[in-house]
Write a structure and sequence with these properties.
The chain is mostly helical and 669 residues long. It has helices at 3-18, 22-35, 40-52, 56-69, 74-85, 93-107, 112-128, 132-148, 153-167, 176-191, 199-212, 219-232, 238-250, 255-267, 272-284, 288-301, 306-318, 322-336, 342-361, 364-375, 384-397, 400-413, 418-430, 434-447, 452-465, 467-471, 473-486, 491-504, 508-521, 526-538, 542-555, 562-574, 578-591, 596-609, 612-625, 630-642, 646-659, 664-668. Helix 13 (238-250) crosses helix 15 (272-284), helix 15 (272-284) runs antiparallel to helix 16 (288-301) and helix 33 (578-591) runs antiparallel to helix 34. One of its GO terms (biological process) is RNA catabolic process.
Length: 669
């Protein structure tokens, strides 16, 4: 076949393809290849025809042969791209990406529009495969090409926005290089926006800040972006909210952070981060109750803030709400998730605070939970303060040997650690070795003078050491006063001050004030509440007594606060208000159904009300629970007499006289 015949055959093949006569085209191409086995066009036409005849393997082989012959010719690469783009082609995306890369190389110096079309296709392919770095790098090439061609600012802005859209899911992978390219795209998009300030630009800024907040290492960039947005949009709370949460989460409580909290709170009093910031400000200013109130409210609006939960737990500890502090620490730990970077520091702090709160609850189960919390602290075994806490937990659990072992080790390794001496003091105190306990607590105070708990335990040591130290004003009283001064929320210090003024100094008025303060600080402290009421009665101040009792009974759940119901019931009984007395004494019995004295008082209230049958039942119940209550037995006999049950009454009177021969009321009956 001559050169002329080869050209004619190739022309016939091209015409056949145009007329969709693909088999005919293959015949012409094969004839050419018999003569010229390396004819580039013949191989390309075979690829085209085979692809249309659904013979992909033959088509692929033909295109690859053509590429082998002429690697920088477009036709075969274009044909191979078209073949791989067909929907019936599977597992060819990697090969297609290579083909697109070659086409970009071939189009670069020529047809710019086709280069852009292929670039778009390649980016879409990478995006489907979630190859975000390749997406970013390829799209940047497209933008560079457009910049070189002198594209308008608006077109470039849209391209940067498209790049942001393409990479929006890449932050989950936390690939640093891709992340940097995404942040660069945001910065270019912000700088190339037409309307500044404007709604679209404002929303873009929000997205940029949200994206930055997902990169822990971009702290400086995040702070700058927030400040810049605040300057551009001074009435928008979003950047301030992010900045506040960032300061909270990083533990940075600088002047700038406190100013940021105040500014956000002034701008939007309902903003969760603003209320949280205000709560932390209160905590730093020692306004603990305000801090608890604000942090609780703020966390109801913005609950995924582990650091804020820990600050709340810290504030709750300051006012001795230990059970609430444990719950807040649990919330912090739940919100923290995986212990990485900054999270590890917050996790350790939350676990330590949780353990401290559990130790203060002071029961064996809480102590066991405290030990488990301390075991989870990373590198906790090398922290002497954590070791001292572990010793306290063992002591609370009754494991004296383990507690003593930790105490001895700490005193040897850290002789200047206040917590080591305090632990030794607690061990001696629990064993009633008061003289040794005194030395240990004095050593702890010498090293850490501002700890109210050390002064309180030293005061208790003097209280129980001897009558002499109990009465010595310079001993127990001084320490309780110091504890109360250092920690005005320490209810137990005020309770012991009340006991001192009542039992030692004989100052009922001052004692009542201390007990009242102790009870206001801890409404679960029945001893202080009862003492405050009793002393108010003794001082003739029934208004104060009733005010305390009314406050407790209003808040009490059914079956609780027996002491308050009983006190108020007896008051109503004394003052001739039997119906109110009945109601309160019944409430007291719901809390403790086996209190014989309470049943006797209820019988008296029913009797005064004229409810003889129910009074009789109450007196009988009292005498069943305590057969030694002669008065209840006598009252039951008298009621049987009133109700006309004479034989029963006589039998009951005789029963009393067998035990107490000269009991006059029974003789009369």
């Amino acid at each position: 076949m001559s050169n002329k015949e080869v050209k004619a055959a190739l022309k016939s093949a091209r015409d056949a393809i145009r007329n969709k006569e693909y088999k005919e085209a293959l015949k012409h191409c094969k004839a050419v290849l018999k003569q010229e086995k390396n004819n580039y066009n013949a191989w390309v036409f075979i690829g085209l025809a085979a692809a249309e005849l659904e013979q992909p393997d033959q088509a692929k082989g033909a295109y690859k042969k053509a590429i082998e012959l002429e690697p920088n010719q477009l036709l075969a690469w274009q044909g191979l791209a078209n073949l791989y783009e067909k929907p019936n082609q599977i597992d060819v995306k990697g090969d297609l990406a290579d083909v697109y890369q070659k086409l970009l190389e071939l189009y670069e110096s020529g047809d710019k529009q086709k280069w852009c079309d292929v670039c778009n296709k390649l980016v879409e392919l990478y995006h489907q495969e979630k190859k975000y770095l390749e997406v970013a790098e390829t799209w940047q090439k497209l933008i560079r090409m457009k910049q070189e061609e002198g594209a308008e600012k608006a077109e470039l802005h849209q391209l940067w926005r498209k790049m942001i859209h393409l990479l929006k899911d890449s932050t989950r992978n936390q690939d640093n290089k891709t992340g940097q390219l995404l942040l660069t795209a945001f910065e270019h998009a912000l700088h190339s926006a037409d309307t500044v300030p404007g709604d679209s630009h404002q929303n873009l800024y929000k997205d940029f800040i949200e994206c930055l907040s997902k990169f822990p290492h971009e702290v400086a960039r995040l702070e700058k972006a927030c400040r810049d947005m605040v300057a551009l949009y001074p009435t928008v709370s979003y950047p301030l909210e992010v900045l506040c949460l960032h300061f909270v989460q990083s533990g940075t409580l600088s002047e700038e952070a406190l100013h940021c909290f105040s500014r956000l709170f002034e701008m939007d009093a309902n903003s969760g981060p603003g209320i949280i910031g205000f709560g932390i400000k209160c905590l730093k200013e020692n306004k603990y109750k305000d801090a608890v109130k604000s942090l609780t409210e703020g966390l109801q609006k913005t609950n995924q803030c582990p650091a804020a939960w820990r600050y709340l737990a810290e504030a709750q500890m300051k006012i001795h709400e230990h059970r609430s502090a444990v719950l807040s620490c649990n919330q912090a730990l739940e919100a923290l998730g995986t212990p990485e970077g900054c999270n590890l520091q917050w996790k350790n702090l939350a676990l330590q605070l949780k353990a401290e709160a559990l130790i203060k609850i002071a029961d064996a189960d809480a102590a066991e939970e405290a030990i488990k919390a301390l075991e989870q602290i990373v590198d906790g075994s090398s922290d002497p303060v954590v070791s001292a806490l572990r010793g306290q937990a063992y002591l609370r659990k009754g494991l004296m040997d383990q507690a003593s072992k930790i105490s001895q080790e700490l005193l040897l390794s850290h002789p200047d650690l206040a917590e080591a001496h305090a632990l030794e003091g607690l061990i001696h105190y629990s064993q009633k070795n008061y003289e040794q306990a005194e030395k240990s607590f004095l050593s702890a105070i010498e090293r850490k003078t501002g700890t109210a708990e050390y002064h309180q335990y030293l005061g208790l040591t003097y209280w129980f050491m001897s009558d002499e130290t109990k009465k010595d004003k310079g001993k127990a009283l001084t320490q309780f006063l110091k504890a109360a001064k250092l920690d005005s929320y320490l209810g137990s210090a005020f309770c012991y001050l009340g006991s001192y003024y009542r039992d030692i100094a004989g100052d009922k008025s001052r004692a009542r004030g201390c007990y009242k303060k102790a009870f206001e600080l801890d409404e679960m402290d029945e001893e202080s509440g009862t003492a405050a009421v009793d002393l108010s009665v003794e001082l003739g101040d029934m208004d104060t007594a009733l005010s305390i009792l009314n406050e407790v009974t209003e808040k009490a759940r059914p079956g609780t606060a027996k002491w308050a119901w009983l006190h108020r019931g007896l008051y109503y009984l004394r003052t001739g208000q039997p119906s109110q007395a009945v109601a309160d004494l019944q409430a007291a019995l719901r809390a403790d159904p086996k209190d014989s004295n309470c049943w006797e008082s209820l019988g008296e209230a029913y009797l005064n009300r004229g409810s003889y049958s129910t009074a009789l039942k109450s007196f009988r119940k009292a005498s069943e629970l305590n057969p030694g209550l002669v008065y209840s037995i006598y009252r039951a006999a008298a009621l049987e007499q009133i109700l006309g049950k004479y034989e029963n009454a006589i039998a009951t009177y005789q029963q009393i006289l067998k035990k107490t021969e000269n009991y006059v009321p029974a003789l009369k009956g």
